[in-house]
Amino acid sequence: MNSRSLRRFIVFVLLLAAINPVRSEQPSLHSHREFKIGVLVSLTGSWNSLGQNTVAALQLANEQLQAAAKTEHGGYRFHLFVRDTQLDPAKALAAIQDLDKRGVKIVIGPQSSAEVAMIKPYADAHDILVISQGSTASSLSIPGDNIFRFCPNDIREADAIVSLMWHDGIRTIVPLWRNDAGNNGLHDSVKAAFEKLGGTVTTGYQYQPTTTDFSAATASVGSQITIALTAGADPNSVALYLAAFDEVVDLFHSAAGNLTLSSTRWYGSDGVALSAALTGDSSAAAFAANAGYPNPSFGLPDTLQNLWQPVADAIEARTGITPDAFALSAYDALFVVERALRDAGNLKDFASFKAAFVDAANAYSGVTGSTALDTAGDRLSADFDFWGVRLVNGSYGWVRIGTYTNGTLTLF
């Protein structure tokens, strides 16, 4: 489907979807063309901005596919079984086990690598195809398993943020990161990429996901910055790299009381980009704006804005949160699933459906561009946007401040 045809299709089904409410866990219509889709997202825990937008994106895609199916007197229909994991790996495992009992063999989400790592053995053992929209840990890039990820892995994100730091004259970084699979992967990949360029990476500080008091963390990284400066480093060449989720709010509250951290440049990760929790807290947002704090996020192609903007607007109208490429990749994922089912016919032969899914993903180009996968089942395209918190018209919000496209850095 070319861009003009896809644009016309989106406009058409958006109009039809307006009069077709979404069905979630409704009774079956007893059709072999109807399939259950599990949705594992954080709705009330950390990173819930992505969780809310993911559900809205899938509801929208589902409505559009239903509208198209009615028009065609065919196609496939889906029931969404939404589960709130709260970004908790144990809850994600319990959820997929429950969905399996309900006959669900296709799951979109979960959004964090820690959750994906927890459910992976179960999904592999029980023939469940998992499509994560937010997991980036390169440790999960494993060919042949049942885990597919519609976003680039952490090695590619590291290339983007390190390119920006190096461009800005940063030569020493002090890392601060959450102890989970995704953020550990980001730390490791950023460290490797930065040191490959000749930069220095200090020991940093790794905090536990349950941390609420960040005084020890901020004291430690503040001390490491002081040591680097005392050793003769140019203050403009030292920065803090943070890989986190919504706990960034409490962390910034703690950092604001440290003069060293308040005068240091900060760089971030995809887990905080476009976080509604951060911009919703005025003091934490002010700290972020003062620190610069660019956060890379899997980017939406400018050349396809006429395709993704209407979808993004429709999602934001439902949630009040600006969606990013992670959420829109979940939207694309449901269309890929539908095309795979058209080719495979059903889920009776899981291996055939899995092969059809890979073929469909490799051939499909949606609102986020090509969904082609590498040999490990991760997205091949790896362009990034940089987002920063800025004061605009008297309130703090996220502003797109640059891009990293095909290895080229552009700042606005």
Task: Put the structure in a nutshell.
This protein has 412 residues and is α/β, with parallel strands linked by helices.
Question: Could you describe the 3D structure shown?
Answer:
This protein has 412 residues and is α/β, with parallel strands linked by helices. Helices cover 45% and strands 19% of the residues. It contains 14 helices and 16 strands. Strands 2-1-3-4-5 form a 5-stranded parallel beta sheet. Strands 6, 7, 8, 9 and 10 form a 5-stranded parallel beta sheet that branches. It is elongated and about 70 Å long. The model is unreliable at 15-31 (pLDDT under 50).
Annotation keywords:
alpha/beta, five-stranded parallel sheet, elongated, 412 residues
Q: How many strands?
A: 16
What structural class do the secondary elements suggest?
alpha/beta
The N- to C-terminal Cα distance equals 32 Å
Major beta sheet summary: 5 strands, parallel
Shape field: elongated
| Number of helical segments with 4 or more residues | 14
Question: Radius of gyration, rounded?
Answer: 21 Å
Q: What's the assembly state of these chains?
A: single chain
Strands of the widest sheet, in order across it, are 2-1-3-4-5
Mean pLDDT: 92
Helix content, binned percent: 40-55%
- DSSP strand (E) fraction? 15-25%
The parts where pLDDT drops under 50 for at least 5 residues are 15-31
Tell me the layout of helices and strands.
Layout lengths: L2 H15 L16 E8 L6 H25 L4 E8 L4 H13 L4 E3 L4 H13 L3 E4 L14 E3 L4 H14 L4 E7 L2 H16 L3 E2 L3 E3 L7 H16 L7 E6 L4 H8 L3 H4 L2 E3 L8 H4 L2 H9 L4 E4 L6 H15 L5 H20 L5 H14 L1 E2 L2 E2 L13 E9 L2 E11 L2 E4 L1
Parallel strand pairs: 1-2, 1-3, 3-4, 4-5, 6-7, 6-8, 6-9, 9-10
Antiparallel strand pairs: 11-14, 12-13, 14-15, 15-16
Helix pairs in contact: 1-2, 1-12, 2-12, 2-13, 3-4, 5-6, 8-11, 13-14
